[in-house]
Write a structure and sequence with these properties.
By secondary structure, this protein is mostly helical. It is built from 3 helices and no strands. The termini are far apart.
């Protein structure tokens, strides 16, 4: 009985993770509730944390 519940929980978490990762980034950002981000005009240093941006590339 408990083994089945644990397996169902693991499968549910894996399914949610898969849906989250395959969701478009704009939707994830909106649902995740993280304000600002790379390219946000309101934040002056939004991409400073991105290693690719510091190396001259684009963030994301």
């Amino acid at each position: 009985m408990w083994q089945e519940v644990i397996v169902y929980l693991i499968v549910a978490v894996a399914a949610l993770y898969t849906v989250w990762r395959l969701m478009p980034a704009a939707w994830r950002q909106r649902l995740g509730g993280k304000p600002g981000g790379c390219g946000d005009a309101g934040s002056s240093d939004a991409c400073a944390h991105c290693p690719s941006k510091r190396d001259g590339g684009s963030c994301h």
